[in-house]
C-alpha cells in the first residue's frame, strides 16, 4: 500500500514555514533558519558542488630569451610553492609546457610574463594556445606590449592575456604558452616568487 501526503506547506511549532510550495516553486527553510543537508545534494542524479574546486598557478623558474618567431615555453615550469602561497583542489599536469586539466569544466585561464631588454622592441606577443583534439593548436587569446628604452638601461614589458576554456575532455583539451618579440628579450623568472604565471580557475561545469 502506498501512502501519499498532500500538503502545500509544512510549519514548525512556532508557525514558521519550513517547506512551502507555490506556483511550482518549493522553498525550504524560514528566514533566519540554517538548513543542514545530510547526505549528497543532487541535480538530476549528479552531485552538486559549491564554490571553486580548482585554483592552480604555475611559474617559470629560469630566465630565457625570446625569438622573433612564435616559440612555446616548454621548460622549467613549477607549481607555486612559496610559503604563504596556496592552491585549491587537484593540480594541473604539465609536460614539456603542455598543461592538462584535472577535471572537466569551464576554466578561466590567465597568463602574464615580464620581459626586458636594453633597446627597443616594437612588440612582445604572449599567446595562450589550446587544442581540443590533443594535436592541433590554435591561438585562444593573445596580447601585445612594447619596449622603449628608458635611462639607457633594461626596460620592461608585461603582456597579459586571459580566456575561458571549455574542458569537455581532459585527454584532448589542453593549453600551452607561447611568446615572440620583434627583438630578443629576456623573460624574468624565479623559484621563490611569481614573476610570471599561468593561472587556472575552474568556474563551473561544462
Give a verbal description of the structure.
- With 206 residues, this protein is mostly beta strands.
- 0% of the residues lie in helices and 47% in strands.
- Strands 8, 10, 11, 14, 15 and 18 form a six-stranded antiparallel β-sheet that branches. Strands 9-6-20-12-17 form a five-stranded antiparallel β-sheet, with no helix packed on it. Strands 7-19-13-16 form a four-stranded antiparallel β-sheet, with no helix packed on it.
- It is elongated, with a radius of gyration of 25 Å.
Short description:
This protein has 206 residues and is mostly beta strands.
Structural category is: mainly beta
Specify the helix fraction band. Answer: under 10%
Tell me the quaternary state.
single chain
Distance separating the two termini: 43 Å
Average pLDDT figure:
92
The radius of gyration is 25 Å
* Biggest sheet statistics: 6 strands, antiparallel
Give me the number of helical elements: 0
What proportion of the residues form beta strands (DSSP E)? over 45%
Number of strands: 20
Q: Unreliable segments (pLDDT under 50, ≥5 consecutive)?
A: none
Q: What's the order of the H and E elements?
A: EEEEEEEEEEEEEEEEEEEE
Shape: elongated
Q: What's the arrangement of secondary structure elements?
A:
Elements: E1 9-11, E2 17-22, E3 25-28, E4 42-43, E5 46-47, E6 55-60, E7 64-65, E8 71-72, E9 77-79, E10 93-95, E11 98-100, E12 105-112, E13 115-117, E14 121-131, E15 138-147, E16 155-157, E17 160-167, E18 174-181, E19 186-187, E20 197-204
Antiparallel strand pairs: 1-2, 2-3, 4-5, 6-9, 6-20, 7-19, 8-18, 10-11, 11-18, 12-17, 12-20, 13-16, 13-19, 14-15, 14-18
